[in-house]
Write the structure tokens for this entry.
Amino acid sequence: MLNKLALSGIRHRMRDYTVLFSGLMIASAIFYMFLSLAINKQFLSSNSPAAATAFIFGFGIVLLAIITIVYINYANTFLLSMRQKEYGMFMMLGAKSSKISKMIFVETFAIGAISTIIGSLLGIIATKYVSQWMITALDMQIKHFNSFYLPALMWTFIFFIVLFVFSALRNSVSLRRTKVLTLLHKDSQPSKIKRNGGVKAVQAVLGIIFLVIGYFAMWYIGKNAGFIFIGVPIALVTIVIGTYFTINSAITAVISLLKRNTKYSQKGLNNFTLSQLSFRIGDYTKILSMVSIMFALALGAITVGLGFQKQIDTVVNGQNYYDVAVHNADTAQKNRINHLSGDDQFNYSYKTDDKNKIVYYRTSEFKNQPFHYEAFNMKSMIATTKTSTNVTNPDVSYSMQQNMLPKYRMSQIKAVSDAKYNKIQAASNTLTLVKTTSFKNNLSKIRTISKEEAKRYPELKQAGGDKYTAYTMINGFFSGLEFMGFFLGIAFLAMLASCLMFKILSGASGDVKRYNMLYKIGTRQKVLRSTISKEIAVLFAVPAGLGIVHVLLGLQMFKGILFQPYTHIEIPFGIFIVLYLCYYFLTSYLYKKIVLK
Amino acid sequence: MQKIVEVKNVEKIYGKADEKQFKALSDVNFEVQPGEFVGIMGASGSGKTTLLNILSTLDTPTSGSVKIAGQDITTLNNNEMADFRSNKIGFIFQDFNLLENLTAYENIALPLALQNVAPKKIKPAVTSITEKLGLTEILNHYPTELSGGQKQRVAAARALVHEPSIVFGDEPTGALDSKSARALMDTMTKINQEDNVSILLVTHDPFSASYCDRILFIRDGEIGQELKKADNSRGEFYQEILDSLGTFVE
């Protein structure tokens, strides 16, 4: 009978349970997605040249495990807060506490197990589609990656089952220990007020000191890569503590400053919003700090991932000025070339002396169409485009050789007058070099030309030398890193945002009374809505703001391995903020649904 | 003189036409004059909360008209209702309904802030009402740091600070001990008499009701008997209420 009642209780709160279920499913799905990458050693070693990758992913697992534990803890509190009144009523009506604690144990465990199973399945599907999307969108080459990875699935199950056994035990013990009356009136327990200005001031100072140490460590890693194994843990610990203290003290200070400014605070519901926030901050410090760290890690991962993508362009463009090199173009190749955007086409005639290993060019052609080449400065890691009419200059010859057929690359290059060229007893060949307006935008056409060229001159298959071959090689090298960065970033973002959403939503039921009272004393619905939006916006913005600062300073770490890590960061930041905003709007919408009539 | 409350033929029916319907109020008519202290008494389920909700624009009648300070509140839209409540009405609830994250001062100032009153005018208004209600010492306390009686006086100050046309009390002494209840009712009487504030009190407690000038008894959604204090002392009026309740309930 009691079981039936409990089930009907669940049916009545279907909406709350849907939030709970979907949250838990997202958690296990993300955990699986992450593990499918992080513990796949074959994938890691074949896609990343850096030995530090496994180390970074190790850190990732620890962090994700911590955030998952916190997340499950919130979800569990949410569950208990939904159920305790009903279970309290059963106890009041005479149900034995042992029976009740068994019921809550079964309920918690069942919810956990079901959501883990469904979540992992979702994780497998999501891994497949997300990875496919990323691989095609960013033209990546990924080896040894499979969306279904058994060890990852096993570990996800083990981890979540253990967590839910603990949560279920905790719930049943806590129900058994709490008095029936407290259970019945849990909603009306007042929150306590803390006044500790002195402690807050010390925290504010300590917070800034810790942050400075952390930022310094990251900067130093950028200068001295060997410092990474000590620097990363130092930065992680100090920034975590610094963030916690800063949120706990500085934010409270800002709020009380605003409250003291009566012009602002005594306007409309501003004072109410500020008070809600200052009460919340105490309760939210932990989660906001965690979210801010996760935010930084996730955004950092995506930024660095895209940084590698940018690196591809820079490195590829530094390899060869010309996008296409075609020998003795036939009509089909000519047609393809004409379809490329941009009309910078250069034709150079050449004759070869296979015996003496010499390749002859016409001086006049270089006079009319100077040769472009990339001079790479090893110190600044920047390639600059230069032009020359003298193809025998060693730098120029070297660049020219890349465009020649492999069998002539070791030959000497000579430039001769037209008269002399005509006298040479050999067939004349034409080398067509094309510079398009953008290598990337013409990629698929260039790919076809390069493949056709390799069919016509099979020796090119092995030796490459043209820009497309260089691109394939470099792209393969960076794709692994980029893929990991993106995957890490999106997994963390989804996790942190759902975590924050859950925490905020689990407090919503306590706000129903407050907003109802404001409504009764004559607050317009629109004002109530905007108050809620503002309040939740601050809770989302505080960790995001700090997270962005962490990333901006943390990018210093990558100065050694990434070329100009700060250029175009608006792209990853933009993507990230849009996704994060979606979570904000969803949270705000759900919150209003719960709180307002 | 303009009546503060004018209720004519008010009816409230719950449930749609094709469903089982329930008549919570039927043909309710009464008036409240400026400066009057009126009580509405009835048992649980008699319709007094429905009536209060309609008077305070939290609910609308199925038919009939309700005028507060000359304004027909049944024709207002949602925003106008909200504005009307914040300008013209003061509320005192049984469970105080104070915001526990605001101090007593901030709670009291809330209705003024809602009306966007200039901050420099807020302080004198709050000071004046809190002095009258003896709350100056506890203005910086949060509700959790206050006793039940203090909380209800803060709630009363909040209901009065914006000088509403009428104050509605919904069982304001319901959660108080007898001493605090007496103090609160004394305060309300004082405000009613000295400042000429109209008060409409909904209660089922004869003691609180005995402070009113006039009492309307409501049963099964209909207003039955009416009792006037006139020149009786509070004690005599209390006895009279008890007698009426005895006969009215039967």
